[in-house]
RNA sequence: GCCCCGAUAGCCCAAUGGCAGAGGCAGACGACUUAAAAUCGUCACAGUGUGGGUUCGAGUCCCACUCGGGGCACCA
């Protein structure tokens, strides 16, 4: 009896079957298959899954299911990045408990993932807000602390006045808080840091090894972010003081062209020099500093901003030629980059010449680039050239002059070659409730005391009775029972550190926790790590190109140095899927273009949505939901499903007796499909499945008919291939074809090479690259035979009339190109 | 300002330097039907953003530009 393809019915039919079968269990003891670790970036539980999740998990699932079909034991776990501000803000807004809110969302997302038929191993699950997870954040923090990689310092930090918390450099985007878009200000606070800068060189250099495996975009973003500059640190003695101005410069070759010094207005040295300046100068300085502090980043970054500054009345001495250089302060020099001071070479630096012009300072050319003298034109020349007016450096090119200048200052003991990074240490403490408590106790007598490991975890106290409103200090400071403890060292009165960790700490190592998510003995098993890690394929959004990926790379390198893992990069391959847009822009409630995933699933079914995500285009491109047709995906699945229903032969029939043409289609498909999936051209893979479906339809209706064994072979391979995109439809097809569940474990076969070779091929004849004739020839045709055939062609003869042949290119058996003079 | 990515049919997208079209959407026509939907089938539509170059041959490689998207940016 012919039945209709019924999306809902087959979803309801197969879900419970899979629950029993657990096709994606990766923990079987006797499993001898080779391993693959495929990981999707774990979600933040801020509501139900949305279209973006649907895309990411559809694509990650294609990869996981593909390797599973290829005979690998695939670990494909999932968890929740469950700490963070949204839970806390929701709690404040609606008077809920952050924990209850979070776990409700997790339950909802988990149910949606199950319905979405993600091939997750449900025995490997974690939530970062669970003490069994975050105890290891604390344990790792203390390991870092032991090694000097976690430390506290006072500094001018990024402060979000709206979130009432500090932010890491990476969380400030264009001067705004990445979470709430408030203008970020500076505040002097004592905070905890991880010493990422110790790893700056390795984090940069090791990106080379990821070339071709990570998107080049991400590699370049990380390189930009780390921002290494080569140059020198040079000391300029301050006249009349036992002090010097130390500067970092990438252009020591222009040392003779320095005509003044500039200090960051908010640097300590500027304060000191102002203190010893005349009263008038000091007052001017204080006024200027006030203005600088008031200016926010947006104003400060404006490129057409006029140069301002104050002369401090002091002079520094150029170590290379003993010239006197006036010392200025200005806001165009940043306190927290390099040494917070520069030597200004206005002739060869755009910013310095602007300042020199504004303050009427000397401009001295020391590099002849062939352009006009900057002192005349007021335009700095920053290109390469010949060094002039520079004593021992005269006549050298830039590279040699840099090397020579460094030698000279090193000989004099007033400087040395150096490199500098844009990257800063990672500020990890947050003045909020919903995060991992920092496992440090502050004792009046003993100072900072680590919580002994047998006292971990330091559990978060219940939120009940705590005021979670942002107020600039941690809500935990008010949990007095929790806060007040006796010092582990001297037993005297002491207080816990009341800050919590940045949630990026949680996600920096979670991929290792999946190896043994429930262990209370170790953060992760080193034996399991040897078996599975690093992650073979990581899938997630490009939004994490800098933050999360940099931090995870940093953690991995530290864990390597501690001896806990034997690799230095966490994610061997990375796929960044694009975003799902609607009518050209990101979906949002306020824009009114929100497409609800649950609605789409109700209307079109899970399979159609997953297939649409894979078919829309290259995975890294954005999908505009207005451009795609889930209804068409559903239609195709019905068409494929009917193929399986129409097959009349029995399972296990000898397919070699089948129609040769149909077999050829199937095996060409096998080859093309696997190539497409392995190169992540999922859209092409789907197109090939559609092509096979069209061939099989024709074979059934107008060819050898539904009983031909080759039709069965094609239908079975089609079902297996579709299992990557459409788990429900393909499982039902498999069932219609007389097989037991699950099609997901049926296993792909390789194409039979014998069926791929053609005996004849279409040869084309070009004249000057333009097609003139084509004919079918035997694949074994010789060049001479092909030439003769081409020359004999009437079309070719006609074209060649009156022309003289200069060259004949022959690529037997497919092509002849006749070039004329 | 510096760096990266992209531009192929009305639309989304394919195409190891070798016939511009694999697949889909939308469209036209036909078969089936009393009719419609569904289904099955057939067909049409671009010379690859612009201008140069390399090559026997360029959508593909190189150079310049235009447009779109993204990253970094008073970083010394």
Please describe what this structure looks like:
The chain is an alpha+beta fold. Helix content is 38%, strand content 20%. The strands form ten sheets. Strands 10, 11, 12, 13, 14, 15 and 18 form a seven-stranded mixed sheet that branches. Strand 33 (805-811) and strand 34 form a beta hairpin. It is globular, with a radius of gyration of 34 Å. The chain binds one RNA strand of 76 nucleotides through helix 7, strand 11, strand 15, helix 11 and strand 30.
> Helicity range of the residues?
25-40%
Radius of gyration: 34 Å
Model regions low in confidence, pLDDT < 50 over at least 5 residues: none
Question: Which secondary-structure class do the elements indicate?
Answer: alpha+beta
Count of beta strands: 34
- Largest beta sheet, briefly? 7 strands, mixed
Strand % is 15-25%
Mean pLDDT level: 91
Distance between the termini: 69 Å
Number of helices: 28
Shape: globular
Blueprint of the fold:
Blueprint: H1 7-21, E1 35-40, H2 51-69, E2 73-75, E3 78-80, H3 85-94, H4 98-115, E4 125-127, H5 131-146, E5 150-160, E6 165-167, E7 172-173, E8 176-177, E9 185-194, H6 200-205, H7 216-226, E10 228-238, E11 244-249, E12 260-264, H8 268-275, H9 279-294, H10 297-301, E13 310-317, E14 324-330, E15 341-344, H11 350-359, E16 367-368, H12 374-377, E17 386-387, H13 398-412, E18 415-421, E19 426-427, E20 429-430, E21 440-443, E22 447-450, H14 480-483, E23 484-486, E24 493-496, E25 500-501, H15 503-506, H16 510-513, H17 526-532, E26 535-541, H18 547-562, E27 571-577, E28 580-582, E29 585-586, H19 597-604, H20 606-615, E30 623-624, H21 630-646, H22 660-678, H23 682-702, H24 709-722, H25 727-736, H26 753-756, E31 760-767, E32 770-778, H27 783-792, H28 794-800, E33 805-811, E34 815-820
Parallel strand pairs: 1-2, 1-26, 3-4, 12-14, 26-27, 28-30, 31-34
Antiparallel strand pairs: 5-6, 5-9, 7-8, 9-19, 10-11, 10-13, 10-18, 12-15, 13-14, 16-17, 20-25, 21-22, 21-24, 23-24, 28-29, 31-32, 33-34
The structure holds one RNA strand of 76 nucleotides.
């Amino acid at each position: 009896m012919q039945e209709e393809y019924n999306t809902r019915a087959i979803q309801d039919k197969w879900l419970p079957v899979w629950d029993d079968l657990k096709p994606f269990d990766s923990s079987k003891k006797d499993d001898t298959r080779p391993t693959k670790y495929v990981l999707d970036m774990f979600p933040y539980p801020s509501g139900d899954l949305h279209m973006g999740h649907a895309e990411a998990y559809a694509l990650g699932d294609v990869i996981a299911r593909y390797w599973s079909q290829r005979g690998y034991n695939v670990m494909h776990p999932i968890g929740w990045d469950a700490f963070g501000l949204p839970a806390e803000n929701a709690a404040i807004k609606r008077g809920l408990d952050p924990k209850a809110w979070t776990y409700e969302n997790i339950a909802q997302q988990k149910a949606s993932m199950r319905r979405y038929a993600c091939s997750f191993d449900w025995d490997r699950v974690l939530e970062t807000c669970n003490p069994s997870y975050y105890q290891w954040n604390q344990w790792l923090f203390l390991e870092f602390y032991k090694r000097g990689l976690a430390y506290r310092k006072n500094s001018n930090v990024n402060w979000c006045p709206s979130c009432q918390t500090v932010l890491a450099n990476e969380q400030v985007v264009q001067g705004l808080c990445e979470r709430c878009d408030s203008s970020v200000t500076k505040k002097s606070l004592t905070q905890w840091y991880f010493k990422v800068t110790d790893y700056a060189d390795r984090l940069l250099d090791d990106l080379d090894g990821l070339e071709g495996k990570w998107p080049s975009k991400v590699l370049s973003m990380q390189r930009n972010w780390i921002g290494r500059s080569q140059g020198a640190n040079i000391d300029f003695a301050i006249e009349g003081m036992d002090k010097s101005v130390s500067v970092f410069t990438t252009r020591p070759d222009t040392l003779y062209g320095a005509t003044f010094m500039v200090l960051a207005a908010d640097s300590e040295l500027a304060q000191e020099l102002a203190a010893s300046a005349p009263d008038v100068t000091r007052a001017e300085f204080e006024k200027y500093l006030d203005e600088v502090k008031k200016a926010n980043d947006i104003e400060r970054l404006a490129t057409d901003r006029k140069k301002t500054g104050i002369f401090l009345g002091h002079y520094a001495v150029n170590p290379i030629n003993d010239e006197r250089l006036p010392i200025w302060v200005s806001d165009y020099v940043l306190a927290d980059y390099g040494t917070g001071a520069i030597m200004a070479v206005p002739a060869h630096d755009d910013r310095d010449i602007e300042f020199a012009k504004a303050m009427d300072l000397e401009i001295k050319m020391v590099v002849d680039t062939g352009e006009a003298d900057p002192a005349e034109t007021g335009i700095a020349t920053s290109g390469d050239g010949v060094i002039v007016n520079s004593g021992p450096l005269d006549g050298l090119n830039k590279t040699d002059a840099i090397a020579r200048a460094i030698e000279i200052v090193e000989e004099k003991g007033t400087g040395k070659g150096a490199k500098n990074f844009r990257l800063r240490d990672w500020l990890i403490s947050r003045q909020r409730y919903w995060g991992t408590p920092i496992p440090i106790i502050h004792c009046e007598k003993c100072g900072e005391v680590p919580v002994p490991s047998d006292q971990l975890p330091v559990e978060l106290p219940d939120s009940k009775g705590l005021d979670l409103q942002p107020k600039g200090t941690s809500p935990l400071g008010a949990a007095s029972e929790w806060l007040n403890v006796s010092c582990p060292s001297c037993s005297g009165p002491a207080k816990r550190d009341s800050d919590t960790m940045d949630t990026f700490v949680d996600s920096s190592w979670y991929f290792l926790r999946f190896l043994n998510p429930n262990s209370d003995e170790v953060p992760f098993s080193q034996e399991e790590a040897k078996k599975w890690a690093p992650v073979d394929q990581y899938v997630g959004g490009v939004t994490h190109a800098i933050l999360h990926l940099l931090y995870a790379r940093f953690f991995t390198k530290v864990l390597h140095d501690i001896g806990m893992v034997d690799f230095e990069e966490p994610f061997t391959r990375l796929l960044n899927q694009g975003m799902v847009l609607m009518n050209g822009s990101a979906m949002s409630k306020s824009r009114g273009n929100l497409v609800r995933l649950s609605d789409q699933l109700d209307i079109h079914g899970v399979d159609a949505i997953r297939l649409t995500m894979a078919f829309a285009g290259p995975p890294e491109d954005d999908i505009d939901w207005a451009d795609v047709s889930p209804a068409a995906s559903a239609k195709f699945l019905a068409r494929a499903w009917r193929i399986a229903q129409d097959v009349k032969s029995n399972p296990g029939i000898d397919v070699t007796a089948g129609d040769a043409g149909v077999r050829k289609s199937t095996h060409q498909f096998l080859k093309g499909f696997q190539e497409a999936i392995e190169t992540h051209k999922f859209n092409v893979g789907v197109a090939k499945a559609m092509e096979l479906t069209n061939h099989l339809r024709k074979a059934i209706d107008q060819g050898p008919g539904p009983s031909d064994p080759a039709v069965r072979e094609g239908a079975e391979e089609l079902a297996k291939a579709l299992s990557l995109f459409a788990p429900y439809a393909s499982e039902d097809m498999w069932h219609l074809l007389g097989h037991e569940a699950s099609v997901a474990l049926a296993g792909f076969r390789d194409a039979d090479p014998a069926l791929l070779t053609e005996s004849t091929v279409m040869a084309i004849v070009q004249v000057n690259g333009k097609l003139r004739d084509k004919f079918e020839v035997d694949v074994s045709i010789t060049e001479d035979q092909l030439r003769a055939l081409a020359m004999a062609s009437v079309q070719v003869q006609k074209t060649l009339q009156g022309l003289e042949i200069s060259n004949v290119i022959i690529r037997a058996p497919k092509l002849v190109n006749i070039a004329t003079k």
